[in-house]
Amino acid sequence: MDDSKALFRITRFDDCRILHTDIDLDIINSIHDAFYEGIALASRELGLTEPMPYCTIYVCPNRVEYDLLVKYLTATPTNPGRVGQPQGSELYLLSPTAYGVDALPSFLGHNGQYDQPMFHRLIVHECIHMVEEQVRPRGAMEVVPAYWSEGLAIFFSGQHVEQDLLERMKADLDGGGVPPLSGLSGAATYVWGWTLVKFLIDRDEPDSLARFSRESGETSLATFLQVPEEEFEKAWRTYAEEAAKDVIDRCLSS
Ligand SMILES: [Zn+2]
């Protein structure tokens, strides 16, 4: 049996409580700000009508404590590439003070340490997953394609304009172009999923994003839009290429 070595204290807010150690005392309010923003944003976009349940956020001071809590308190196997894990009304975060040694380079800012705006967007990202789980029928999150959930979280948190993703988009475009929908797995769900979300938003059909995001997860986007799969795929890939070129031109630092 593994034991936690960390001394957690609890800071309570109206909508959540945050368990953290002294090392993160100074950033608890900013963590709460990001949480509040993410839940409000996702509730609005995905049409959450019930109040969000009272949430618990664990801010783990290092990788050992993070892995311990995720392993014993969630149903998800821990993974060294992760720094945040939502489950129901709980959110597990690796303390940004540990990013320099315990997080992959893609989570770090230019100085090799944590970057406050990136950490803020990461919390918003995880909150979007939490609200999606609330608005969908029970069990739907297990069948929803990862590119849709990650697309929602990446797009609404604004992570699609971060350098790491822009570089990956550019590498794909310089290689074989936008991957087919069937190829959107693993890292590609983060790189390209947001273009599907934006594609649906830009069709400008009232509530379509919220309605599609509240389904059981078994209907394809093409079926939902009543468009043949092949026609949808062609239209989306053309759209995705333009959308990616646009953000690369505007936001990729050389
Ligand atoms: Zn995610």
Helix/strand structural class? alpha/beta
SSE series: EEHEHEEHHHHHHHH
Strand content: 5-15%
C-alpha-based Rg, rounded? 19 Å
Largest sheet report = 5 strands, mixed
Strand order of the largest sheet: 1-2-3-5-4
Strand element count: 5
The end-to-end distance, rounded to whole angstroms, is 49 Å
Bound molecules: zinc ion
Helix percentage: 40-55%
Q: What's the overall average pLDDT, rounded?
A: 93
Gross morphology is globular
- Residue runs with pLDDT of under 50 for 5 or more positions: none
Discrete helix count: 10
Short description:
With 254 residues, this protein is of the alpha/beta class. 50% of the residues lie in helices and 9% in strands. The chain has helices spanning 28-46, 63-73, 99-102, 116-135, 146-157, 163-174, 187-202, 208-213, 221-225, 229-251; strands spanning 9-12, 16-20, 55-60, 84-87, 90-94.
